[in-house]
Amino acid sequence: MNDRDTHTIFRGDAVASRGGWLPTITLAALGSLLVLSGCATGPTHPALAGAQLPELIPVRDFVTSLEGTGNYRVSPDGTRLAWMGAKGTHPAIWVRTMGQDDARAYPIRARGFRWTADSRYLAATVDATGDENSHIHAVAVDQADAAWVDLTPFDKVASHIVQTVAGSSDLMVATNRRDQKVFDLHRVNPHTGAHTVEATNPGNVSAWIVDHRGRLRARVAVAGDQATLQRPHTTTPGGWSDAVQWSRFDFVRLLELDDDAEAVWAMSSRGRDKSALVRLRLSDGAETVVHATDDVDLDHALISRRTHQPLVAYSMPGYPRREVFDAALRERLDALVGGEPAEVSITSMDDSERTMTAVVATERGRRSYLLPADGPAQLLGESGLSLISGQLARSRPITLAARDGLPLHGYLTLPEGVQPNRLPLVLLVHGGPWSRDRWTAGPASRSMQQFLANRGYAVLQINYRGSTGYGRAFMEKAIGEFAGRMHDDLVDGVRWAVQRGIADPTRVAIYGASYGGYSALVGATFTPEVFACAVSVVGVSHLALSLEKAPPYWEMGIIGWHRYVGNPAKPDERRVMDAKSPLFRVGPETRPLLIMHGVNDVRVRLEQSELMVEALRKAGRPVEFFTFQGDGHNNQRWPNNLTMYRKTEDFLARCLGGRNRGFDYYQLAAWAF
Questions:
Q1: What is its EC number (predicted)?
Q2: 439-453, 583-597, 656-670 — most confident range
Q3: How many domains does the chain have?
Q4: Nearest Cα to 649, choosing from 5, 31, 10, 16?
Q5: Is residue 426 part of a domain?
Q6: Cα dihedral: 195, 168, 121, 220 (round 10)
Q7: How far apart are CA 215 and CA 232, in angstroms?
Q8: What number is the average pLDDT over the span 426-449?
Q9: Where are the beta strands (DSSP E) in 39-156?
């Protein structure tokens, strides 16, 4: 069997198929397959030769864990605890009574979940196929024989929970069932499944503001480059009055209403460079700044539902930072980390706000704790990564200057057991681009930096211009800079590592997903002198076509893409977009590429990778291409992630000379999960 045959068998689409290849393989063929798939191989890069590198961690430990748990949530009445884990080989949400060993599993693959306000139901958000048409499922935890019920069983419809309703099981749900471009507001009864339309979107409402009693208190309407917070008219039924206006390019995220709905807590950058926690008065739009920092935006803030006052504000200049406004709460959270860097987040509270759950996150995983009303904190569980944290590398914040003098921030993860001298390096590029890399390991990076470091690579993450978290001016420096100064920032990061002797300039790879995948394609085509190879996951190759085929519910937000990238309907701007599209830069110098894509991706359609692969093959350039069935823009199914990691491991070992653990026996059983 040649390499091409092996790739065909272990493509994501074959692995995920339950009725596929595995039952037809004979024992002899299986033995041959294991041999041909390869065993662990040592590094070939000279900087790694003879180094005392740590034990190779199996790929499966990075992509799935039957013991790892997370997303712990205490019920509002404080009597139960729910969390995400696995039952056997399948994902599930577990529930137990506080203080008792009566845990029960409700199998489901969910993006997330929450309790209803009366603690009788769990409501889970489910994207079964990765096409982002998420459904809301509910289960009655009081019923012994309860099963999940789809509350939004509509084809090609996306729904999400806006609010739970105090004193009831009802959910306030936004759904685009009537019109795929916009979201109406429904009140949904989990017991009967009945929907009541609370508000119909006139075509320009981007958000509904609902209080904890289920009352619609405000909405955000958009027109052109302006957003307006509107309140229900006091004298005209069904009418709305303008309350506060801001630029669409300001950052304003509404958090919680005051009990009387006369003000709202918000993260806002109106009139300032950095986002701050403010109290926004609805009568005249006046803001009172409660907390701000000079160096970075505030990430988020937690507001008490009981007192309607802020509890914690979070930011991340390098290591995580938190401002806790209550002294007693500060002491409880500080006790979880003992002075070490960590992001400590309250993830749920009961109605009294005395019993809560919290997560302590570092670059090496997440631990979940119960903070009871009385007594010390109790460890509830750990993420899969945290369970192997003792074998993982350290990440540290770094700062450098771009070629035009702009300060850049990021993170460097170095492999253990080797001197950081001329190491093979992977530039790991975050998506968005309106996002950022964080010190804590999590969904944004898929913990890829730890996997790559274990294989012997130095891993560099740069928050290039356009990244969030560093203020309005920093983000707006990305306008018109796709494949321009945004990419220069990444190259400058590589040069920084080379100049310090950390990286081998001849063995640098660029890896990314979504916008990061676009960056990887740009690296392989625009700057092949910098990169030895590239890995693109769900990456954009044709900018204009990508925007033309954006999901219908992007319509109200497409103005931001037009501002930063261009409007493909305008010929002059389309020409610029084509000039910045890797598809049209494929040539004889293009570097070897590994391209992977979820077939159900609606943000960056599979066509984007297919076109790029076709162009590469026509040009005679080396490319490997794998697709993931049953997944979209972000893989949910761990067999697909297993394939993604394994293909990355093989590809980079050939390109950069790092270690390769070879075939993972979980690949044989992937069909069963």
A1: 3.4.-.-
A2: 583-597
A3: 1
A4: 10
A5: yes
A6: 60
A7: 11
A8: 88
A9: 70-74, 80-87, 90-97, 104-107, 112-115, 121-126, 135-140, 149-150
Strand 171-175 and strand 184-188: the pairing is antiparallel
**Cα–Cα dist 126/30, whole Å:** 36
Q: Characterize the bridge pairing of strands 423-429 and 407-413.
A: unpaired
Q: What distance lies between CA 81 and its chain's CA centroid?
A: 25
With pLDDT > 70 as the criterion, what percentage of the chain qualifies?
93
Instruction: Write out the two tokens for 98.
Output: 């506080």
**Distance, CA of 396 to chain centre:** 21
> Would you state the pLDDT for residue 460?
98
Instruction: Report pLDDT for 284.
Output: 87
Residue 482 corresponds to which tokens in the numbers above?
Answer: 């796709």
pTM for the model: 0.93
Q: Order of strands across the sheet with 310-315?
A: 300-303, 310-315, 321-324
CA gap 29, 36 in Å, rounded: 10
Q: Round to the nearest angstrom and report the end-to-end CA distance of the chain.
A: 26
According to DSSP, residue 193 is labeled -
Residue 305 lies in a domain: no
CATH assignment of the domain containing 395: 3.40.50.1820
Token pair for 186? 């429904």
DSSP letter at 405 equals: S
Residue 52 in domain: yes
How far apart are the C-alpha atoms of 594 and 656, rounded to whole Å?
13
Residue type at 83? W
Owning domain of residue 505? 3-63+388-542+581-667
Preceding peptide of 310 cis, ω within 30°: no
- Residue 103 belongs to a domain: no
Rounded Cα–Cα distance for residues 285 and 231 (Å): 12
User: What are the start-end ranges of the H helices in 369-484?
Assistant: 384-387, 448-454, 472-476
Does the pLDDT at position 26 exceed 60?
Answer: no
Confirm if 113 and 92 have CB atoms less than 8 A apart: no
Identify the helix (H) or strand (E) that includes residue 171: strand 171-175
**Do 173 and 152 contact (CB within 8 A), yes or no?**
yes
| In contact, 365 and 57? CB cutoff 8 Å | no
> 504 vs 46, 48, 345, 497, 527, CA distance in Å?
10, 12, 38, 9, 16
CB 447 within 8 A of CB 479: no
SS (H, E, C) 534-582: EEEECCCCCHHHHHHCCCHHHHHHHHHHHHHCCCCCCHHHHHHHHHCCH
Instruction: Round to whole Å and give the CA distance between 525 and 521.
Output: 6
